[in-house]
Amino acid sequence: MENNTDKKSRILQAAGQVFAQNGFSQSTIAMIAKNAGVADGTIYLYFKNKEELLTRFFENKMRLIFDRFLETVSGANSAEEKLRNLIRTHFVEFQKDKDMAVLYQVETHSNVRLAEDQIREMSKMYMDLISLIVEQGQEQGLIRKDLYLSLVKRMIIGSLDEVINTWIHSEGKYDLVSMADPLVDLILNGIGNHLRSDA
Amino acid sequence: MENNTDKKSRILQAAGQVFAQNGFSQSTIAMIAKNAGVADGTIYLYFKNKEELLTRFFENKMRLIFDRFLETVSGANSAEEKLRNLIRTHFVEFQKDKDMAVLYQVETHSNVRLAEDQIREMSKMYMDLISLIVEQGQEQGLIRKDLYLSLVKRMIIGSLDEVINTWIHSEGKYDLVSMADPLVDLILNGIGNHLRSDA
Amino acid sequence: MENNTDKKSRILQAAGQVFAQNGFSQSTIAMIAKNAGVADGTIYLYFKNKEELLTRFFENKMRLIFDRFLETVSGANSAEEKLRNLIRTHFVEFQKDKDMAVLYQVETHSNVRLAEDQIREMSKMYMDLISLIVEQGQEQGLIRKDLYLSLVKRMIIGSLDEVINTWIHSEGKYDLVSMADPLVDLILNGIGNHLRSDA
Amino acid sequence: MENNTDKKSRILQAAGQVFAQNGFSQSTIAMIAKNAGVADGTIYLYFKNKEELLTRFFENKMRLIFDRFLETVSGANSAEEKLRNLIRTHFVEFQKDKDMAVLYQVETHSNVRLAEDQIREMSKMYMDLISLIVEQGQEQGLIRKDLYLSLVKRMIIGSLDEVINTWIHSEGKYDLVSMADPLVDLILNGIGNHLRSDA
DNA sequence: GATGAATGAGAATTCATTCAT
DNA sequence: AATGAATGAATTCTCATTCAT
Fold it and tell me: Which of A155, C75, D46, D157 could form a disulfide with B159 if both were Cys (CB 3.0 to 4.6 A apart)?
């Protein structure tokens, strides 16, 4: 027995899949309907139009994922542990839902901003989270004080992004989560050899 | 008096502009033709189809830009200087040609890989360049040896990417090139406070 | 407690209203259902399809209204009084049920004859009624004998029609019934100045 | 050899025909295109959308026809002759272009006012023309002074309308123009027997 | 009987591509 | 070579009608 919530989320899931595979513009309502096992018209019982499919898809996912982020961060004490937890959870969640990962990567870079509001909001919250962690780390003496905070955020987010992107294009053949610790190390210590003066 | 090369490149430039502004799918041949000051049909005398416009646009740009990258890197001795030059030149070139910057950002993340080959090739060469620099740096003792090289590349490229992306979305209101040195510093030293044990 | 006749006529009334407001093509079953307070599917328990809603609506109304016409005409002696009563009653009834008035005006002129039979039958009976009155008037010496009867009917009906039409488009802001006597005067006497030879 | 004006007006003519036969809503672009001997898309090279086809159709016709009306009226001296000429020309023109006649009849009564502006303007001018004639007739002593002018206009227009309407529904089997003189007689003299007091 | 979710045929409109001039 | 009018396939969305509950 299927209720409407089931059908609505089945359509949403199908849309996510189709969008992730073909891009928003190249995806047709017919594809999504077929994928969801419903008639074309049925989609319009649940969603105003094609764009709303994308919007709602994100709205759904983002809320859930962001809650996980907050949770994992608040479950740590030191700034370093917080950063480590955030990045690890990020990878965990994105690995768990590849369609969403793909769409997020595409949409945040697309110049046709369809799910703009959802993305922007999510992005803002994520940035704020990183700010908090970095600032706490500075107070705790774990993180340098001579940093251009806004650049730091871009560096962290860009690195995450690219690691995920590469994983996506590798067709998810390896474990994304295992990248978390090495990445945190790179972010904290950079690539420079800080021991060279001792040698 | 205009020759065919002029017209071809005028069309290409127009295509780049239109694609950058509207995205590939939302751009029409009519828009591009108008922008280039030619008739719709004329475009098909020089290019097989809409997709080829994108492909050739990149081919053109990438070749030129990559030559600059090689040049700027070879004009430096230490690995650090090479990295610094590469990143600075990257920002200089992308700032100089915003249409190309936008398209590159979008296309490298799009799941509809239209200019795939061009992008992939460019990406590969860029990666190799970074590899060379890092490896040289390791030999010179400037860069840590305990690095997961492929992750380092992603971190560097991702950071660059995101810095450019943010600049693009700010409508180019500030100077992108001034981000180069602070970014190199972050990449080399990370955000961690390495002096804390001395304190 | 409601019986089926109630529900059927409630649907019919709702249909009339919706059709009158939006036109037949622009009206949807969903609108009518909502207006009638029933489910979309319920309508199909009582009516074969959308078209039948229009057909039955007229059938209903026309029968009732035509009875009034006959009644008011038979309650008069002279042809003039009969004509006056007919026109006055016509205006009274149409003013009383504006939805019906609107639909009747639209449908009699539409080239998509949906309620064709009902309209035609009604129209025929109305014409016959006028014929009777005119012929009686001729016998009584009240009405000219040198008339092209079929044209007279069109003149009378057309005038009525246009007066009603204007009233409808004025959003019913004035009293339609007050137009009856002046109109009868015009029909009987025309606009010509018949006293001019006497002057 | 065909130029664009030809094609545009061929489409317009086809649209008029199709609309007249099926009504605006029931007519499809495909029908019109087929009727005009062009591809569906071609229509959109000349017209913004389906509605504009109707609008332009009227705009075209109305202008031409109204000029004839003015001409024929100004070519007469007495109010009676003016009225006679107007009505005769009206019938002549509508008989000449039945598609237009049908559409005009339908549109002026439809509650979905698509060609609203054209119709309204035309209607207004027509009304004004009648007003002028009647007022002149009153000055000349040919027309009664005790008239409700606005009702007179409705009577005249309604009569014309209905005569045309009947002719249309008879499939144009008889000569519409021959109705002009008898109708003018009715309008001027009414149906009443003004000699009865003498008898 | 009543419901309203589901269907899918059908319609308007867009636009890459072609081709006669 | 260049043009731009013409094409028609493809797409989104609507809505009358059906049917399982």
Answer: A155
C23 Cβ within 7 A of any nucleic strand F atom: no
pLDDT per residue over A27-67, tens digit each?
999 999 999 999 999 999 999 999 999 999 988 888 899 99
Q: Is residue C178 within 8 angstroms of chain D, CB to CB?
A: no
**Phi, psi angles (nearest 5°) of residue C25:** -65, -40
Q: Beta partners for D143? A: C192
- Pull the structure tokens for residue C110: 């539409």
CA angle C16, C18, C19 (to 5 degrees): 65
Ramachandran bin of B171, using left for φ above 0, alpha for ψ from -120 to 50, beta for the remaining angles? left
Positions 39-98 in B, CB within 7 angstroms of strand F: 39-42, 44-45
Q: Which among B24, B163, B192 is the nearest to A188, CB-wise?
A: B192
Contact B154 A159 (CB under 8 A): yes
Please give, one letter per residue, the 3-state secondary structure of D71-96: HHHHCCCCHHHHHHHHHHHHHHHHHH
Amino acid of residue B70: L
pLDDT at C72 over 90: yes
Question: Considering only CA atoms, which residue is closest to the C1' of nucleotide F15?
Answer: C28
Determine if strand F comes within 7 Å of the CB of C40.
yes
| DSSP H or E run through D61 | helix D50-74
Residue B192, helix vs strand vs coil: strand
DSSP string for residues in C63-122: HHHHHHHHHHHHT--SHHHHHHHHHHHHHHHHHH-HHHHHHHHHHHH-SS-SSHHHHHHH
Q: For B26-52, what is each residue's pLDDT tens digit?
A: 999 999 999 999 999 999 999 999 999
Listed residue (A23, A52, A101) closest to B106, CA to CA: A23
List Cα–Cα distances, D118 to C174, D66, D105, in angstroms: 26, 12, 13
Residue A179, chain B, CB below 8 Å: the answer is yes
Instruction: Inspect the interface and report whether the beta carbons of A152 and B109 lie closer than 8 Å.
Output: no
Q: Classify burial at B22, counting beta carbons within 10 Å of its beta carbon; exposed 0-12, middle 13-18, buried 19 or more.
A: middle
State both tokens at D66: 């109204």
- As a whole number of angstroms, the distance between CA C28 and CA C46 comes to 16
> What's the CA A2/C1' F15 distance, rounded, in angstroms?
25
* Closest among B73, B6, B67 to B38, alpha carbons compared: B6
Chain B contact partners (≥3 CB pairs within 8 A): A
Residue B93 has pLDDT above 50, yes or no: yes
Per-residue pLDDT, averaged over C49-61, amounts to 93
**What long-range pairs does B146-154 form, CB within 8 A, spacing at least 24?**
B147/A186, B147/A191, B148/A182, B151/A163, B151/A179, B151/A182, B151/A183, B151/A186, B152/A186, B152/A191, B153/B127, B154/A159, B154/A162, B154/A163, B154/A166
Domains of chain B: 1-47 (1.10.10.60), 50-191 (1.10.357.10)
The tokens 């891009």 sit on which residue?
Answer: A23
User: Per residue in D85-112, pLDDT tens?
Assistant: 999 999 999 999 999 999 999 888 887 7
